[in-house]
Design brief:
Blueprint: E1 4-6, E2 9-11, E3 15-17, H1 26-35, E4 39-46, H2 47-51, H3 55-60, E5 71-75, H4 79-91, E6 97-102, H5 107-110, H6 122-136, E7 142-147, E8 149-151, E9 154-155, H7 157-167, E10 172-175, H8 189-199, E11 204-207, H9 213-223, E12 227-230, H10 240-248, H11 259-277, H12 279-287, H13 290-293, H14 301-307, H15 313-320, H16 331-335, H17 361-368
Parallel strand pairs: 3-4, 3-12, 4-5, 5-6, 6-7, 7-10, 10-11, 11-12
Antiparallel strand pairs: 1-2, 8-9
Length: about 375
């Protein structure tokens, strides 16, 4: 397999943890690093909030002393603010790698022209990416993560991929869905293959529906992509990165662990969250992971409910002791997609956004407000 490079960084195996809001904090990233190798990206950070030095946002770009490389994903819609945030990262040595978010399909982001809606405006996309690369001064590599487009009638990934490559990013990662698809249906790996062909040797990473190490190898084989980005597939399954490491090394892929190991990993995850954020917040954070870790296992309803309302590690230990570790997982349930699914829906967009693929004065006013709803990280 080809080694993935970003400036002076070497990502081996070519595996990237996708940024996921409320999930890829430093506790989860440590857990994944303990299981395998790769590049582990932070939660999405808004550039305006970073520049304004919001306390919660600054905490999101704090890394463990032994975390290397340090990777941060930035979301922004104003070229000047994005460039300012990138300069801040470089000058204050906040990270070793910057990823730019153009893939978020969440309505509160797209309705203001951000995320996966933004590449439709070719000039705005160009200015943000070019400005970020320029501000990085060649010190910190910049990459781009995006979707196919807004919907099947408004695809942007080929043009956006070319713009990003010409601007000097280290690679482009493509999620094989449109914003309208959200996380429904199946990812279109053929679009990843088309982008690989379109960019003729420029590194393209594939994202979407990688739920096993075998999926990653198959995506690489079918699309010719230079690496993979893993999102929902690792929810409740951080050991997936160990399986990926083995797969890319050509070694035997370790089987999924038994329930005793799942319980121990869940407990370790909670402990890391408490170390990072304190017991109150850490226990609140682990609650969202209960369904993911115990997907496919017979855990009594009241135990699940109590785990989803846990307030201390002592209570957590008592509840985990009520789970029978000597049981097999339901293979059919385990094989189902993890995390968000749902159906396709029309994306929320600014008025008149699709009238032109270029920014005009009216839509520029909307874009100037796009970070305010998500400012603070």
């Amino acid at each position: 397999m080809t080694v993935l490079r970003a400036g002076g960084l070497v990502v081996d195996p070519p595996v990237v943890l996708a940024p996921m809001a409320g999930v890829t904090n430093r506790a989860f990233r440590r857990l994944c690093r303990e299981e395998g190798a790769g590049l582990y990206v932070s939660e999405m950070v808004t550039t305006r909030a970073l520049v304004e030095r919001h306390e919660a946002t600054l905490d999101m770009v704090r890394f463990e002393p032994d975390e290397s490389p340090r990777s941060v994903q930035l979301y922004g819609v104003d070229p000047l603010v994005v460039a300012q945030a990138v300069r801040m990262v470089v000058e204050e040595d906040l990270a070793d790698h910057i990823d730019l978010n153009f893939g978020c399909p969440v309505p509160k982001v797209t309705r203001k022209g951000g995320g996966s809606a933004l590449p439709w405006k070719r000039d705005l996309f160009h200015d943000i990416v070019h400005g970020a690369v320029t501000a990085a001064q060649g010190v910190v590599p910049v990459t781009v993560k995006m979707r196919k487009g807004i919907d099947d009638d408004h695809l942007t990934y080929l043009d956006a991929g070319r713009i990003a490559a010409d601007a000097g990013v280290a690679w482009v990662a493509l999620h094989g869905r449109t914003a309208a698809q959200m996380y429904s249906g199946s990812a279109d790996w053929s679009a990843i293959a088309r982008l690989v062909e379109h960019l003729e040797g420029f590194p393209v990473l594939g994202n979407g529906d990688i739920f096993s190490a075998q999926d990653a190898l198959r995506m690489m084989s079918e699309t010719g992509c230079a690496g993979v980005v893993v999102g929902r597939g690792c929810l409740g399954r951080p050991w997936l990165f160990g399986q990926l490491t083995a797969a890319f090394a050509g070694a035997d892929i370790p089987p999924d662990p038994d329930l005793a190991h799942v319980i121990a990993t869940f407990r370790r995850h909670a402990e890391l969250l408490v170390e990072a954020f304190g017991e109150r917040t850490g226990c609140c954070e682990i609650r969202k992971h209960v369904a993911w870790y115990f997907k496919g296992y017979a855990v009594r309803r009241h135990v699940r409910q109590d785990l989803a309302n846990v307030t201390s590690l002592a209570q957590l230990d008592d509840l985990l002791g009520l789970i029978d570790p000597q049981q097999e997982a339901d293979a059919e349930v385990m094989a189902a997609p993890r995390g968000r699914t749902g159906g396709e829906r029309a994306p929320a967009l600014p008025d008149g956004w699709l009238d032109s693929p270029y920014l005009d004065a009216a839509s520029a006013l909307d874009v100037s407000q796009a970070e305010l709803a998500v400012s603070g990280g």
